[in-house]
Amino acid sequence: MNGRGETIIQVRGLRNSFGEQVVHEDLDLDVRRGEILGVVGGSGTGKSVLMRSIIGLQTPDEGEITVFGESMIGRSEEETKDVRRRWGVLFQGGALFSTLTVAENVQVPIREYYPNVGEKLLDEIASYKIVMSGLSPDAGPKYPSELSGGMKKRAGIARALALDPQLLFLDEPTAGLDPIGAAGFDELICELRDALGLTVFLITHDLDTLYAICDRVAVLADRKVVAVGTIDELLALDHEWIQDYFRGPRGRAAERAADAAGMESAEG
Ligand SMILES: Nc1ncnc2c1ncn2[C@@H]1O[C@H](COP(=O)(O)OP(=O)(O)OP(=O)(O)O)[C@@H](O)[C@H]1O
């Protein structure tokens, strides 16, 4: 099956624990092609651990994870190389290499997966990804310490896009950005999804982001995904955390802002 609606990530019966602490138990999740799936949950509910399990940085106790139909559990790095080059990751805080320039950071995954690419082409690809991420071309020779928080995130996106991925993992991309910077970043994610046909797995606490760009939202609580759907579908559920989160003062403000933006765009 091709096109929108196809399952790109499938998680079944996932269990993760650290010593006595069970973080996930019997967790299921599907991420569909072309969607921006927001992942929310209280602090410590295991959103990052879930992402790390999917991308193979955390070995679960139990469960099955497939990405692009390929099983990710119990397989070596070499065996999953072809799948891994089809995704890009933006970790919390950007995680750029501080001793490398922005352009060199973008080139890291290309050098890793395609060691025979020449310097000139590497420079060209890096420039292209940098501009695509909304940075000016002169950001390429700069070091991360010379960039603002928002620019670092964009540089992180440029690196995540280095291998022309079909799937993006973003861990709290707007954390620490001012509201205007965060809105600009939301717009960038949406534009990239539309232009490149990406599927996006997006961990966020940012209610504005959820309203502005997420097609569906998965809620982590009680060690599993307790609900997944549009915000309207979630609001119809009688779940205490969901109601508190979306109906709290911040949730209502984000909803009003989204309604106002919707009316503006309808008026042209
Ligand atoms: N490597 C690790 N060793 C031990 N415990 C860990 C490890 N990684 C995560 N944990 C624990 O697992 C739980 C879930 O962590 P995780 O970072 O996934 O939470 P989160 O939902 O992303 O939280 P936040 O919203 O605060 O970023 C936490 O209690 C954390 O302390």
From TrEMBL:
Keyword ATP-binding among record annotations: yes
Domain of life: Bacteria
Pfam families in the record: ABC_tran (PF00005)
Membrane-spanning segments: none
InterPro entries linked to this entry: AAA+_ATPase, ABC_transporter-like_ATP-bd, ABC_transporter-like_CS, P-loop_NTPase
GO MF, any single term: ATP hydrolysis activity
Keywords: ATP-binding, Nucleotide-binding, Transport
Domain ABC transporter: residue ranges: 9-247
PANTHER family linked: PROTEIN TRIGALACTOSYLDIACYLGLYCEROL 3, CHLOROPLASTIC
Protein name: ABC transporter ATP-binding protein
